[in-house]
Amino acid sequence: MDRLGCCPSPRPRPSLCLGLGDTPAPLGSTQGCGLPAQVPQTSSGNDPDWASYTLGVFICLSCSGIHRNIPQVSKVKSIRLDAWDEAQVEFMASHGNDAARAKFESKVPSFYYRPTLSDCQLLREQWIRAKYERQEFIYPEKQEPYSAGYREGFLWKRGRDNGQFLSRKFVLTEREGALKYFNRNDAKEPKAVMKIEHLNATFQPAKIGHPHGLQVTYLKDNSTRNIFIYHEDGKEIVDWFNALRAARFHYLQVAFPGASDADLVPKLSRNYLKEGYMEKTGPKQTEGFRKRWFTMDDRRLMYFKDPLDAFARGEVFIGSKESGYTVLRGLPPSTQGHHWPHGITIVTPDRKFLFACETESDQREWVAAFQKAVDRPMLPQEYAVEAHFKHKP
């Protein structure tokens, strides 16, 4: 067994983890889970210490727990701590992650979200179950729940005013380019129509207070509207999420006929660059600083009194440095009022926005998020957004 590096007792040798999706990593790489390069590695790296000896794949610790929950499909052992018999080692040697990827990911739709270790538990679990347990990417007919172009069902939606979650009927129709929901089962007219063109969905389990919590945003009168939903069944809510991504994908294919799938996929849904509390003052910069919840969504910086508010109290567009936008650490010397100690000044062509962070690490993270937007050249459509942008100081 020396050819597998398994002396003195048989042990398979990992090449990469196939628990999650993305680019394969070379033998010995710290990218054990095949994560994108921008995902930070731990000090010990992500080389897998576990393997599924029934699937023939090497997996990391995070994925091993999910595999243990589907014992009818995947049986897990530690590479270093458990005993391996000769047949199991030979099985691992004759299969491996590349072979498993070729089999179990052979028909993944371009729009289907491939999670990384930084994603929530739900997305990671449903990806692994879809791949190995349900084998959705071997048999395309199993993809109908999120690829048919139409979907309807009931989801728990948080009330805008009272914060109570109530069951609401939702309908997604690609033909109409919209996601709609109805306040009553027999209602003929929807309570809201969300155009796919301006829709985004991102999982927010901690903020919503449910492991399957999904935040959907859309533009209403050029302002961002949030709705918060969940379903008790993890597969259901992830199917909804991927159905929304599919609708966005097909819309963008029509809107940008010359674009490749690789160009369109990053535009299907986006996670927020940064969220958290800061303090802000008003446009005169003589008002007191008030604590607000901030969300950085692409170039929109939105602030809310409460993280689960339906509408932002105000929105700030952050353009590129070529268009006159700058991010500065600290506040102007003339700043009045009591505030947190770590200031940030955003300079726009119209005015300066002043914010304060409670800790230096918060300040550093917010400055990095703002700088990322400022350093990125603006796209033609972003100039149109800037021109029509509304904010409440």
Automatic annotation (TrEMBL):
Gene Ontology MF term list: GTPase activator activity; inositol 1,3,4,5 tetrakisphosphate binding; phosphatidylinositol bisphosphate binding; phosphatidylinositol-3,4,5-trisphosphate binding; zinc ion binding
Protein's name in the database: Arf-GAP with dual PH domain-containing protein 1 isoform X1
Record's keyword annotation contains Metal-binding: yes
Keyword list, A-Z: Cytoplasm, GTPase activation, Metal-binding, Repeat, Zinc, Zinc-finger
Transmembrane segments annotated in the record for this chain: none
Gene3D superfamilies (alphabetical): Arf GTPase activating protein (1.10.220.150), Pleckstrin-homology domain (PH domain)/Phosphotyrosine-binding domain (PTB) (2.30.29.30)
PANTHER family given in the database record: ARF-GAP WITH DUAL PH DOMAIN-CONTAINING PROTEIN 1, ARF-GAP WITH DUAL PH DOMAIN-CONTAINING PROTEIN 1-LIKE PROTEIN
Arf-GAP domain ranges (all copies): 33-145
InterPro entries assigned to the protein according to its UniProt record, in alphabetical order: Arf-GAP_dual-PH_domain, ARFGAP/RecO, ArfGAP_dom, ArfGAP_dom_sf, PH-like_dom_sf, PH1_ADAP, PH2_ADAP, PH_domain
Top-level taxon of origin: Eukaryota
UniProt-listed SUPFAM superfamilies: ArfGap/RecO-like zinc finger, PH domain-like
Entry-linked Pfam families: ArfGap, PH
A GO CC term assigned to this protein in UniProt: cytoplasm
Domain PH: 148-249, 271-375
Upper taxonomic lineage: Eukaryota, Metazoa, Chordata, Craniata, Vertebrata
Subcellular location: Cytoplasm
